[in-house]
């Protein structure tokens, strides 16, 4: 008799728990934990995949280009970011107009496109779009400047139709490099 009581009590408890879970929006459960990623931009293991993989190149409307390489980590919930890399700004004729380093300052957003397993890659490889505030420091004796770096990796099973592999860089008061030209990026879930 005591055994039947325990089974009924357990059944009642599980039913109540299931009812409570059904009332919680799915996004709350999925997004409540910390998620950590490593990011690669035109560097590391990506360079051996294709001749155009490294560096990542983005183009402005005046045909200037910016070459970007880098890596680091970021966390979602709470948002944080580390890392950095290099940049080279060239005019439409390929003349170098500036170069230097960049450092990640703040993760603004990250949207996952899902696991790279959809493309037959390791499940920890993940596609998505990260927006981060970065600080660029030129090699010359000039002041640095802030920008928004957009990193898009087109892996996963939820890739938006308008997603394009590569990077974009928005700089206030300068050409905006808003067209992905070449290069590979990757997010690795840790």
Q: Could you describe the 3D structure shown?
A:
This protein is mainly beta and 190 residues long. It has two helices and ten strands. A six-stranded antiparallel β-barrel has the order 1-3-4-5-6-10. A hairpin with a 3-residue loop joins strand 3 (65-76) and strand 4 (80-90). The longest helix is centred in the first third of the chain and has 22 residues, at 2-23.
Short description:
The protein is mainly beta.
Pick out its properties.
10 strands; 50% strand; 14% helix; 2 domains; 190 residues; disordered N terminus
What's the quaternary structure here? single chain
Q: Approximately how much beta-strand content do the residues carry? A: over 45%
Q: For the CA atoms, what is the radius of gyration?
A: 22 Å
Pick out the low-confidence regions: 1-31
Structurally, the number of domains stands at 2
Work out the helix count: 2
Q: Give me the strand/helix succession.
A: HHEEEEEEEEEE
Question: Order of strands across the biggest sheet?
Answer: 1-3-4-5-6-10
N-to-C span: 49 Å
What's the structural blueprint in terms of helices and strands?
Elements: H1 2-23, H2 26-30, E1 35-41, E2 56-60, E3 65-76, E4 80-90, E5 96-115, E6 125-138, E7 145-153, E8 166-171, E9 177-182, E10 185-189
Antiparallel strand pairs: 1-3, 1-10, 2-3, 2-9, 3-4, 4-5, 5-6, 6-7, 6-10, 7-8
């Amino acid at each position: 008799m005591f055994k039947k009581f325990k089974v009924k009590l357990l059944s009642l408890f599980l039913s109540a728990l299931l009812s409570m879970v059904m009332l919680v929006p799915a996004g709350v459960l999925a997004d409540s934990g910390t998620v950590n990623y490593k990011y690669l931009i035109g560097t590391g293991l990506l360079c051996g995949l294709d001749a155009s993989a490294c560096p990542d190149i983005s183009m402005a409307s005046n045909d200037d280009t910016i070459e970007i390489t880098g890596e680091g980590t970021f966390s979602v919930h709470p948002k944080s970011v580390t890392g950095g890399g290099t940049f080279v700004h060239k005019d439409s004729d390929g003349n170098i107009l500036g170069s230097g380093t960049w450092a990640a300052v703040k993760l603004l957003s990250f949207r996952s496109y899902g696991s790279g397993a959809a493309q037959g890659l390791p499940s920890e490889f993940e596609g998505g779009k990260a927006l981060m505030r970065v600080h660029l420091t030129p090699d010359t004796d000039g002041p640095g400047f802030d920008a928004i770096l957009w990193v898009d990796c087109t892996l996963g099973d939820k890739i938006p139709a308008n997603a394009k592999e590569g990077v974009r860089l928005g700089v206030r008061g300068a050409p905006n490099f808003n067209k992905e030209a070449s290069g590979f990026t990757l997010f690795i879930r840790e």
